[in-house]
Amino acid sequence: MSANGNAISSLDIAYIVLEAVIALASLSGNVLVVWAVKLNKALRDTTFYLIVSLAVADIAVGAVAIPIAILISLQVKMHFYCCLFACCLLCILTQNSILFLLAIAIDRYLRVKIPVKYRAVMTHRRAWVAVGVCWLVPTILGLLPMLGWHRGDSLGAAAERNSSSSSSEGRYKACSFPEVMSMDYVVYFNFFGLILSPLLLMLGLYVLVFTTIKKQLHHSQGACKASRLQKELKLANALALVLALFALCWLPLPIMNSVGFFCPTCHVSKAILYCGILLSHANSAINPVVYAFKIKKFRVTFMRIWHHYYTGSEWNESTFHSNTLQSQRADKSDSV
Prior knowledge:
The chain is mainly alpha-helical. Helix content is 76%, strand content 2%.
């Protein structure tokens, strides 16, 4: 039985199980990313600050956003403003990942466009400022519904009308995302402003990355520069995959919300809605694969962690840092 007295269907059970699997994958993969940066000093530069911050945001998705999504899917009874805050928190934690993806795309473009001046432009201080902005902006924008941009005429109004009743039962309703969140906010502000716009920006940035690398390859002189540009081109291809996965994961759910908003008579089945939610959360589990595992320094560190903690081999920290330094020198142009 669910919290509001309705039986949990087999579809709900399947959804909860898949959400649990995604949460576990997101937690384990992103914790491994943070762990690797903690162990390997070669990974501690401005670009990896953004990657680690993205990993932390995705850890929060697995640890907080997914459990909240499960509670909302079960329509657990709670006070209107508790439900509204839970939905706002869901938006905040998922929007963080999007902004960090955009920040990494901007960083990628700067590395290709101004490789000589990059380190002077992207200082440690500016990297931390970018990290702070990526946390602060979603927090402010995600809490706007708490300031009044919500559907108070439905669940909230009913709760207020029953607040003077001797029974507290009337103050608690089955928590549902569309019942408390304004669809104007969800569609126009969240989808068009905070999902679609960053997606288009990333598309433009990656197009510029490709064209810049190809132009530099065409005019390059010297084997060293050509080799560096070839590596940049390979990484740009990987980033194109990242962009495709981002669109695949994040577009279906807001598109469903938009269909329901612009076409009230159109019906989106519960199974399809669950698929959209699962895809959006799955992006947090995919990020360690498409970002971290494409970087040689991460792969070396992951292998060292595996050999030490899972195969029982001896951990020699001095040898580890020595091997890492050698790898860094041998692959000095292997940027993120």
